[in-house]
Amino acid sequence: MELRHLRYFITVAETLHFTRAAEALGISQPPLSQQIQRLEHEIGTPLLKRQTRGVELTEAGKAFLSDALEIVHLADHALERARGMARGISGQIQLGFASSVAFGAPVFELIHRFKTHYPAMELITREENMALLMQDLHDGLLDAAFIRLPCESSKSFNLKVIATERMMIALPAGHPYSHQRTVSLVHLADETLIMFPREVAPSLYELIASTCIRAGFTTARFLQAPQIMSSLGMVGAGCGIALVPESMCCVNNPNIVICEIENNTLYTDIAFAWRHRNPSKAVLHLLKLLDAQRN
Q1: How confident is the model at residue 175 (pLDDT cuts 50, 70, 90)?
Q2: Residue 45: DSSP 8-state
Q3: Per-residue pLDDT for 216 more than 90?
Q4: Structurally, what CATH architecture does the domain formed by 3-87 represent?
Q5: What is the CATH T-level fold of the domain 91-162+269-294, as seen in this structure?
Q6: Residue-range domain boundaries for the chain
Q7: How far apart are alpha carbons 229 and 1 in whole angstroms?
Q8: Contact 145/156 with Cβ under 8 angstroms?
Q9: pLDDT tens digit string along 55-87?
Q10: Is the pLDDT confidence value at 9 over 70?
Q11: Distance between CA 101 and CA 269 in Å, rounded?
Q12: Which of 18, 47, 116, 203 fits a disulfide with 61 by CB distance 3.0 to 4.6 angstroms?
């Protein structure tokens, strides 16, 4: 049984007339009649009652019509789904997010534009630390990831920078320097510095740590927080100070004041990362939207 035979039968069943069905299908009537007869022979029972002015469905024909409609619908759906996935306009895209990009407005502006342009695409997202993101991207568990640079392992992937951010100083409210817009790291060298674990983002950790050590901080006064985001909560609790990306200034916590760094040389990039070989069509669509967003 071929799918076209089902379509022939459905058209005859809906028009209840061989001539009109043949016209709708764009074929002549004799071949259509022959194909329906072959279908009935294959099934082993008449589906239509031939009458002078048309046809009528038998009981078997009515039952078969219901199933034929469902089969054709599923076949059409499968065809469209496969074509959509091939074009990257439907299916799934697996995206990873570094925990520290959660407040990066350009990232979620891009995601919003992607969903607007490709509403049939299902976004499956996962938030992880940088080390896990890079590993999952390498292993093919992610199609792409939004990461924070510097990141040594990111050199194994294609990268496109989305935004560049200054690092800022988060101080507890009431700190002697909390009223100042700009603060020198040298003046804070005796403070406890709250840092995320090195394995979360090794290159960024080294950048921040080395800058602070040059300013007079000692590693003995480093206090570990689970993530960059959680370091803000610890600052608000009075545990110390922290250096955080500028986008985290939007966190509304009355116990925290965020100041600029005097003579700041600390910058970090948010980047879109994807594998060198065979990127999915959905990833290519994201890249095209990203290029449009930056222009």
Answers
A1: very high
A2: S
A3: yes
A4: Orthogonal Bundle (1.10)
A5: D-Maltodextrin-Binding Protein; domain 2 (3.40.190)
A6: 3-87, 91-162+269-294, 164-267
A7: 61
A8: no
A9: 889 898 888 888 888 888 887 776 776 665 666
A10: yes
A11: 10
A12: 47
Tokens standing for residue 14: 């809906």
Q: What percentage of the chain reaches a pLDDT higher than 70? A: 95
Rounded distance between C-alpha atoms, residue 266 and residue 271, angstroms: 16
CA distances from 250 to 86, 130, 216, 244 (A): 39, 22, 29, 11
| In 49-201, alpha helices (H) | 59-87, 105-117, 130-138
Cβ atoms within 10 Å of 291's Cβ, excluding its own: 10
Q: Which residue reads 């070989």 in tokens?
A: 277
Tell me if domain 3-87 and domain 164-267 are identical in fold: no
According to DSSP, the residues that pair with 93 across neighbouring strands are 123
94-124, pLDDT tens digit by residue? Answer: 999 987 787 778 888 888 999 998 888 888 9
Q: Which CATH superfamily is domain 164-267 in?
A: Periplasmic binding protein-like II (3.40.190.10)
pLDDT for the residue numbered 82 = 66
Q: Strand, coil or helix: what is 191? A: coil
Q: How far apart are CA 48 and CA 61, in angstroms?
A: 6
